[in-house]
Amino acid sequence: MSVGTKLFSFLSKDTNEPPDTRDLEGSGSFWRQKGYKVPGHAQPDVVCTSPPHKVYGAQHPPKYVADSDTKVSQTDHLVAYHRSMVTDIEEGFNIPLTRSHSDGVTRPPDATSPLSDPPGLKFEFDIKAHFLNKVKHMSQSKAEEQRSAFRGSEGLGYDPNDRETAKLEKFGKSLAGPNTDINVIRKLSWGGIPAQLRGTTWQLLCGYLPTNIDRRESTLTRKRLEYRQYLDSYYKKNVFDNNHDIMKQIQVDVPRMNSEIKLFRQQVVREVFIRVLFIWSIRHPASGYVQGINDLLTPFFIVFLSSYVPADKNTDTIEFSSLPQCHQDTIEADSYWCVNHFLEGIQDNYTFEQPGIQLKVAKLREIVQRVDNNLHQHLIDNEIEYMAFSFRWMNNLLMREFPLHCIIRLWDTYLSEREGFAEFHLYTCAAFLLTFSKQLIAKPDLQALILFLQRLPTDQWGDRDMELLLAEAYRLKYTFENAHGHLKVAQSKDST
Amino acid sequence: MVTIDEEFDMVIKLVLIGDTGVGKSNLLSRYTRDEFNSESKTTIGVDFATRTIQIGKKKMKTQIWDTAGQERYRAMTNAYYRGAAGALIVFDICSLNSFDSIGRWLQEIREYGDPGVPIVLVGNKFDLKHLRQVPISTAELFAHENSLKYIETSALLNSNVESAFQFLITEIINSFSQVHKDIQECTPLTFEDRSDLSFRRKCCVIN
């Protein structure tokens, strides 16, 4: 069967059927329990009465709702991936590549100002020049890399570079204002954000950067000053004395993180982390500082830093102290506010007894039991508790399981999803476990299983692997979110 | 938990507990893989490692759960105390705080672990003698009062790490032998083979 035939047969199945909502009443299952709207908690029951109509941006996952009994094979993944690419290409070709952005407000960049916008922000004001420059200078190796990533689609009659540039154009147009439609940015970001625009886009998705372009500069100025004031108020001796344990813990933990990356060995970088974590902990006494939160600051720091790193320097190795002090301060303040926003959505992961994590691990178990009962049974037979391996996945949002560049790509999607870190993450974890189903089932005992689960082979993973993972997570989400009947079958089988 | 296995004569489950940053993970990596990493990442939840040892003619498998030390993780980690055949409670000799926590750890293991589970108290990082905050006599007195064995180790120098685990396993075997006479008193122990051998699951649970 040719790729084209597969594609056609796949499309014919794409009926957009709504998730099974039958028999939702009267179940006493975990999924049936009424929950309150607590940050980080799964949403309470909502009956899904209409099919999902969302169509995401580039490389969006398949929008079909598969029969919940069907485990999507690798072939299905690829077919879905082809399909998403074809849609993107079609969309991409409809966009004139030289669209004018002269209606955007142009602001003179002022790099010497302590509160000046990072280069990522400047981009939105000069999208056309940047875009043309990007096309001109796109390196041969990058182009080759993209070609190889899309080699499966050869013969479909498009150039991946066009797709990349079209995406950049769409982003640029949307970010340039005057009012950025956050829903458009969400759709575009789901499939990955171009590196040049990631800093700005993440700030928008975090609700830190206003959608109205006229309010951006004043808001950033105010927020960065506010962070300075926090430092003045909280980062001093008498506060340290009253919070000695927190400070000591952070000081012990920060040097232990990311030691494989040269940047994080620099004392000045460690001090940034210590300040941000301490201020956050003091201002959030319900959870305080919990180990793992330090890891979660890393992607924000790296992304915002990369906006200031000259093209000829590597973010992982740059001397942080070589940046102008005003840029260092800006990166620190922006990282604080964005990590602050994002932790608010998952705070119950870190409060007493960590209820957010307990809930998600229980849900993960139910999903795996339903989707891949052989794997579930194999884990249970070998006395593997889901908590033993997935606690870390939830607590550190998979940061210990993937290389940092994969995490950044993952977070593009999480930030674009409403409640992505609280909700979508659960389905990513399920998809992640299911990816290794065959290898896990081949493991003979508790020891082999746990050792494998503790260090799953993701060292060589790249963006494309993450996108396949996200596509599967998306499929699971649309199969199970609000479709409690799907899990009920598994439970009744289990109880008999 | 001590179990009898078809391929192994015994499988022993151990837990490592103690405050964060006292060196539990490095004691484990030194014991199971002869590795030490001064910048090892903080343990989140639990980690797991095993080592096969030979005691006389008996082949034994130790399964060791290394737990996260931060207070917030207790609700999650104390589930691993249940069924453990023995525990190493670790503190840092350079941190009085970590020693002050020992009473709490002891209480936790006695509350959530099996009754009468053998425990060895470990004062780690004795390579940093110049920074010592906990005198040997204080630690020994505490151990004596609580019927624990006490040993000082350095995972960095690979000093006494073997002995700490050996102490614990000996105690476990001896208390097990009192019930099951077929296993002889087993000191001195000889430890060999760090490799991870596969073994079949079918085993009978003794306690």
UniProtKB/TrEMBL annotation, chain A:
One Pfam family in the UniProt entry: RabGAP-TBC
Record keyword Metal-binding present: no
Chain spans, region Disordered: 1-44, 97-119, 139-161
UniProt superkingdom: Eukaryota
GO molecular function: 14-3-3 protein binding; GTPase activator activity
Keywords from the UniProt entry: GTPase activation, Phosphoprotein
Ranges annotated as biased composition (Basic and acidic residues): 14-25
Segments forming domain Rab-GAP TBC: 192-418
Functional note: May act as a GTPase-activating protein for Rab family protein(s).
Descriptive protein name: TBC1 domain family member 22B
TrEMBL record, chain B:
Keyword Lipoprotein appears in the UniProt entry: yes
GO CC terms, sorted: endomembrane system; pseudopodium membrane
Coarse class of the protein's main subcellular location: membrane
GO MF annotation terms: GTP binding; GTPase activity
Keywords: GTP-binding, Lipoprotein, Membrane, Nucleotide-binding, Prenylation
Keyword hit for Lipoprotein: yes
Membrane topology: Lipid-anchor
PROSITE patterns for the chain: RAB, RAS, RHO
Domain of life: Eukaryota
Subcellular location, record wording: Cell projection, Pseudopodium membrane; Endomembrane system
Coiled-coil stretches: none
Family annotation (Pfam families): Ras
Its job: The small GTPases Rab are key regulators of intracellular membrane trafficking, from the formation of transport vesicles to their fusion with membranes. Rabs cycle between an inactive GDP-bound form and an active GTP-bound form that is able to recruit to membranes different set of downstream effectors directly responsible for vesicle formation, movement, tethering and fusion. RAB25 regulates epithelial cell differentiation, proliferation and survival, thereby playing key roles in tumorigenesis.
NCBIfam families in the record: small_GTP (TIGR00231)
Family: Belongs to the small GTPase superfamily. Rab family.
Self-association and partners: Interacts (GTP-bound form) with RAB11FIP1, RAB11FIP2, RAB11FIP3 and RAB11FIP4. Interacts (via the hypervariable C-terminal region) with ITGB1 (via the cytoplasmic region); the interaction is GTP-dependent. Interacts with ITGAV. Associates with the integrin alpha-V/beta-1 heterodimer. Interacts with VPS33B.
Name of the protein: Ras-related protein Rab-25
